[in-house]
Fold these 2 entries.
Entry 1:
Amino acid sequence: MPSINILTVHPPEEASSTVRQTFEIPLDIPDVTIEHVTTNRMGHIEITVKSTIEGTPCRQCGQMTTTFYGEDREIRLRHLPILGRQTYICLRPKRYECSNCHGQPTTTQQLDWYTPRSSFTRAYEQQLLLSLVNSTIQDVSTKEAIGYEAIMGVIDRYMDREINWEDLTQLDVVGIDEISLKKGHRDFVAIMTARVASETLILGVLPDRKKATVVAFLQRIPKRLRQTIRSVCSDMYDGFVNAAKEVLGKRVKVVIDRFDVAKLYRSGLDALRKQELNRLKQELSEEDYGQLKGSMWALRKSEADMTDKDKDVLVCLFEHSPLLQTAYNLCGELTSTFDTRMSKRKGKNQLRKWMRKVRESELSCFDSFSTTLENHLDDISNYFVDRHTSGFVEGFNNKLKVIKRRCYGISNVTHLFQRIQ
């Protein structure tokens, strides 16, 4: 592999004579020799190289030809910077004539360290991709003084526009979720992921969350891979749930995420809290009402995370609102059910028992949730089989949202898929 001496150090006169006045920097480009090095008027380093490989496969017959015909026009490729200065590799590719083909066509030699029609060496393209981590395309374009479209060209060359199913052997657990591409929860797209062993894979970014769109994507999954899916984790959106059942059938368990379920029943508790605090604000003195400060966070914490102050706030709150205490206990009971390992049958019975308790109570804050729970009871209780959740989906989607914010939004779903691989 060639190297190049580019920096001369001039030590003081009193310095030891053993100090090296030059050092070598690896060029990291194989199969070339360096002919000369210059610095242009912009201060950029230009390294002219020549190929050491003799011959090239004919573009028509594919046989190796070694009859030299001449050199093609010079190409200038940007390479990794040297000491902070832009560096370019200049090469005139060799051309060879094939005596085996009619008309003796010529073929231009292609070396492995650059891509035809690219303005960069492969090493520099890899550096650009690395620079895109936690940065926008515009950021890298500005820092490297490269056009936006040129960087997009690099992304297209290295990042697939869609999943290559041939690279996968199994899917195990598939996750379906949605994110909004625009502020204000507009332009929803569906994110398809899979959890294989301990790795989360991005399968696709769909242009919308319609059932027909999800069905079409699931049908594109090769049959051999569809047969490896054991569970599908989703929220309660019917478009996702029904699409999975239609394509994958009863063999695959559709699991409605327990944390989406928890969000719903806790929202019932939160609605009652607001209602009761509004009532107590009218009935209690300012001093007594002040003792309820922080009740929102105290109600949301698990018992293990509570401070003594949180416990005192809840004691005071429940003295004034026994109804809120009943709702709080019911929420804790349901959370405990999901935290306990049990069979699906037992879990379903526990959920039915909880719904009976709600009906027998004076509470109305859980009415909407109870209806939802009854309608999706089987899919919710599928959680107790293998305890799958959409945690891996949510964690992945949080990363997507960070990328989306840093890029000031990505409206093209293909580009979004490429950025999150």
Entry 2:
Amino acid sequence: MFGTLLSVALGGAIGASLRYLTNVSVMRLAGPGFPYGTIVANVLGSFLMGVLVVVLARRGGNDLAPFLMTGLLGGFTTFSAFSLDTLTLFERGEVSLAGLYVGASVFLSLAAIAIGVLVA
């Protein structure tokens, strides 16, 4: 149990660091004003989750699931940042943009996980 907890913690630290780097990189490319970085992290993470769920199941790698799925991808994707980004857009009076952000995030993340399953 303790080994699994350490595995999740290590994966989470790596995932959170990768999310930070993704947000910084995307902001440099796209500029501020819209939370593109969070969308990129959530869509990419959803795609990778779809791939991993198939690959790990087929190859009997479920012992890696706590590190990869709960830790790494759990740290990389973030619903709390999504919620904060949505609230921030709403508070700035950009209600339509907040709605677009919610719709795009949900649709693209669901599409990405389905594509990840198909690819794997």
